[in-house]
């Protein structure tokens, strides 16, 4: 099967990701930002799904003729609620950044070339981070107390460390991959 690329993506579109996330976060006056709110206002469906054979799958979004459906693994919501919020924000990122409309026909992101998939994944995580912990809100907190910040923004410690670093508020060699940690 050949995949036709309408828009060639060479790298993470930092500006688009940032602007989209900040505009959306701006609808909230203070943290925590609830990603489900956006699924609601955009009329996007979210449903629990039993990923029987692959319990480590957190969520999957599928594009169909009438829109999108995001299937979520309820186990993650129960065991790792903060991680779950990040996963919802990530799936939202794929949708609002137009990842599903970059390709023609019925292709799903799973069919995309490997290098493109990596960039789109990265964009969705960057979006999730900026939406859940917008720089403008983070700077308003005027504290670097990790416990306080993670509770205020309802994110994991690794997400918060990543956001603090990204916003130039801490300087460490914290590896970005740890954001994927539960
Ligand atoms: Zn993804």
TrEMBL record:
Residues 81-164 form the IrrE N-terminal-like domain. It holds the Pfam family Peptidase_M78. This is IrrE N-terminal-like domain-containing protein.
């Amino acid at each position: 099967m050949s995949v036709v690329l309408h828009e060639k993506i060479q790298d993470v579109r930092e500006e688009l990701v940032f602007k989209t996330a900040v505009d959306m976060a701006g609808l909230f006056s203070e943290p925590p930002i609830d990603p489900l709110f956006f699924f609601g206002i955009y009329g996007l469906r979210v449903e629990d799904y039993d990923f029987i054979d692959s319990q480590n799958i957190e969520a999957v979004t599928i594009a169909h003729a009438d829109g999108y459906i995001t299937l979520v693994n309820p186990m993650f919501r129960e065991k790792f609620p903060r991680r779950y919020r990040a996963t919802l924000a990530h799936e939202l990122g794929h949708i609002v950044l137009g990842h599903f409309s970059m390709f023609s026909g019925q292709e799903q992101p799973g069919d995309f070339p490997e290098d493109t998939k990596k960039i789109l994944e990265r964009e969705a995580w960057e979006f999730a981070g900026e939406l859940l912990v917008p720089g403008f809100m983070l700077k308003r907190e005027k504290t670097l107390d990790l416990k306080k910040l993670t509770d205020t923004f309802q994110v994991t410690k690794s997400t918060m460390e990543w956001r603090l670093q990204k916003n130039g508020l801490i300087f460490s060699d914290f590896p970005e991959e740890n954001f994927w940690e539960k």
